[in-house]
Amino acid sequence: MKLVTAIYPGSFDPLTNGHLDLIERGAKIFGQLVVAILRNSDKTPLFSVEERLEMLRECTSQWENVRVESFAGLLVDYARDRGAQAVLRGIRAVSDYEYELQMAWMNRKLDSSLETVFMMPAGAYPYLSSKLVREIASLGGTIDGLVPASVEARLRARLRDLSSASR
Known about the structure:
- By secondary structure, this protein is an alpha/beta fold.
- Helices cover 46% and strands 17% of the residues.
- It has 6 helices and 5 strands.
- β1, α1 (17-29) and β2 form a beta-alpha-beta unit.
């Protein structure tokens, strides 16, 4: 059986339990899973790339075949550089599917050897997104069970720091 390397790209700002669900299941399917944070200068993230790398490495350390990195540029170029044959993407809703399908087709146009594998989230996470987590936390809502405890602590601290700085 051929060992397949897959890339799971994203912003992971912050890492959620939905992301971890896909990472855990992807680690069972692929020989090597590279969780890759996209360095996107067009976005203003809550956490730096280095902080997100730390959180991801901490929360994925139990899977020996999971590696955490960051990249800039085209995903197909990064995948080729890593010897990856597949891209793992999560699909929560029809709106995700439409966007992800367009990206998969473009990636296939750019590199026909790169396959895209779509996974549905576990039943507990179809509504979960980093954006919603940030919004709920910023408004003082509970995010218990939505992110790992260590991520929640960092998120609460960052929001306190931002709130103090704006006063």
